[in-house]
Amino acid sequence: MKTAESTFNISLDDLYRINQVILQSTEWKTALDQIARLIRPLFIFDNLVVYLIDPETRLPETAYARAMGRGKRAEADAAWGETIAAQVCNTGKIILHEPSEPMNADRLRRPYILGVPFQRQNTILGTIIFIRFGSPPFTEEQIHFAQFLANDLALVIDENHRHKRLNELEAQHHIFRLQEDFMSTLSHEIRTPLGFIKGYTTTLLRSDTSWDAQTQREFLQIVDKETDRLQELIDDLLDSARLQSGRMRMNFQIVRLDAVVNDVLTRTHLHHPLLKVHQQIEQPLKLIEGDPVRLAQVLQNLLNNAAKYAPESDVWVNICNVDNGVQIDVIDHGPGIPPQYVPFIFDRFFRNPEQAPNVHGSGLGLFICKQILQAHQGEISVNSTLGVGSTFTVSLREHI
User: Fold this and answer.
1) Which residue, of 46, 235, 323, 400, has the greatest Cβ tally within 10 A?
2) Predicted confidence (pLDDT) per residue in 61-94, tens digit
3) How far apart are the C-alpha atoms of 21 and 28, rounded to whole Å?
4) Numbered ranges of CATH 1.10.287.130 in the chain
5) pLDDT for residue 3
6) Which CATH architecture has domain 253-397?
């Protein structure tokens, strides 16, 4: 005679309902949360664990764990079936482990463990582990049910893996496409200043003619300007590489942002004398901890972009205290950014294709800004409306 605890009465309606939960779910963990609640009155377990094989190490890693009943009351000390999981993943077979401890031993020392593999097209994806502490043993019917459940879950897990891989491939394709565009842009951006430098220096060095002092000075100013442009491009490339590899050093210290802003505005006026920049800074302004050189680089880049993409607009730099820190808004009333390009504006190499042919740039400036601010545990975002303008918002944490 079976005890009430070991009775297993599951109907076709129950199986259908479980099957629908799995197949209609786009995320297997969400489905398993629902299924755990559905099946436990029918299929007693204390711990339920899913191990998935890591594609790099080829070892089973915990992907889902849930403790119920006795398992929940002693979660830290309870067994989670790691050894059985490894055996199931290695053999691809169902494994049933029954305790060797005497009946009078502590229940937690007498786990019944059932491991069933997730398998798709002769590939082992992982295993689902059911654990009961003390009793009852798993029956043949329950093992068949666990196999039914594992087969259905394997479908969703495999589909999730495929979807994740597809997203990764699409992301890689997007990066490759941006890199191709970048190489084309880079070739153009480098050739242009080099062409000017080469052309004007060759002209100055001609032995068959002479140039008056004013003309020589004009030529040399052009060479100087194009050299600066080339240097800026090289600096962006180096900064981008250092930030991606984590090798850019930050000199963190207590920073007064109003002093940083004043220095940047002075330099901006020298490089863009026609750009009108208005500032509004709340006083007293909270102190932050950061690298003043890199924070100045962020602000300088935003102002340079305003000069390039909104050349006829005044620019406002507003700084105010907010909860837990300081917020900087750089506002222009230029043409704005088309909404379809806003999600990519901080991506490496990205340039607005509608403006790229007419504006010099590498597509690295805003990417570098974002990376610098992330190193400061800060954020940058943009709000833009076509024909109205753009607002770049920088958030930095207060020094405590």
Assistant:
1) 46
2) 998 888 876 655 554 445 688 899 999 999 999 9
3) 10
4) 169-245
5) 39
6) 2-Layer Sandwich (3.30)
Q: Which among 19, 47, 46 is positioned nearest to 34, based on CA atoms? A: 19
> How many CA atoms are closer than 13 Å to the CA of 371, on its beta-carbon side?
20
Amino acid in the structure at residue 371: Q
111 vs 353 pLDDT, higher one: 111
Q: What span, in angstroms and rounded, lies between the C-alpha atoms of 146 and 149?
A: 5
Residue 350, pLDDT above cutoff 80: no
Distance CA 278, CA 313 (A): 11
Interacting residues of 240 by C-beta distance below 8 A, sequence separation 6+: 348, 364, 367, 368, 371
* SS3 at position 32: helix
Cα gap 278→105, rounded to integer Å: 78
Which DSSP string do the residues of 139-151 spell out, in sequence order?
Answer: PHHHHHHHHHHHH
Q: For the domain bounded by 12-161, which CATH number is listed?
A: 3.30.450.40
pTM score of the predicted model: 0.49
pLDDT tens for each residue of 281-291: 999 999 999 99
Question: For residue 214, what are its two tokens?
Answer: 């004013």
Query: Which segments of the chain does DSSP mark as H helices, in order?
Result: 12-23, 28-39, 70-73, 82-91, 140-204, 213-245, 257-271, 292-309, 365-375
Mean pLDDT of 92-105: 82
User: What is the fold of 169-245?
Assistant: Helix Hairpins (1.10.287)
Amino acid symbol at 306: A
Mean pLDDT, residues 252-273? 89
